[in-house]
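Extended Data, panel c. Modelled sequence:
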Amino acid sequence: MSVTRLWLVRHGESEGNVAASRAERDGSPVIALDIRDADVELSPTGREQAAALGTWLRSVEGSVDEYWVSPYRRALQTLAIALDDARTASGALVDERLRDRELGILDLLTWKGVEELHPEEAARRRHLGKYYHRPPGGESWADVALRLRSFLGEALHRPASTVVVVAHDAVVMLILSVLLRLDEAKLMAFAASHTVRNASVTELVRDDDGWRLVTFSSVDHLESEGADVTVHSGEDDA
């Protein structure tokens, strides 16, 4: 037996999401956050979203064979709250290759901050494009895709049929690109018109013809539970 269905879940809204949106709104070059990315927690709204996600998880739990989760706190919290702490992420497969994209010297900067403080990187980004631009000390989207290929090459052969993955927006997008075999142009076109919403569910299934996308960034479970729907791209669009 191997994996034939993936439900890809983005973590609930985080304090980092809130801080980044505030900085963009205020025109600030710097995002006011004083902890490392791996330790960023869910916002109060994110906790409500995770609880609403739990309603959906309980409806499908009988068919879920495994949970895979990023080691970052906001992803672990999302899974733990969704499972009502009855079974925390201790029973899940936690793998560092599911972590969020690392931004290196551009971490905690808005696009305005990148242009003001690192204009050479802004120029390199425009020249290379979003997919291949690697900020010093950080990762490009292509780098994240490589580590996800490594992870999926192992994990998809585990003795499980249906898996819930709790991770980050870039991870969801790049798992789609790997499994649906989207090249740079197709992925960038898709990403330009689609955003992975907080606590949303994206479904992929595999049949004889390969993987196909069933649902992208569904938030029906949030709306039915009266939880706020938030859109934080997590990536600048420059």
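The two ends are 43 Å apart (CA to CA). This feature is highlighted in the accompanying rendering.
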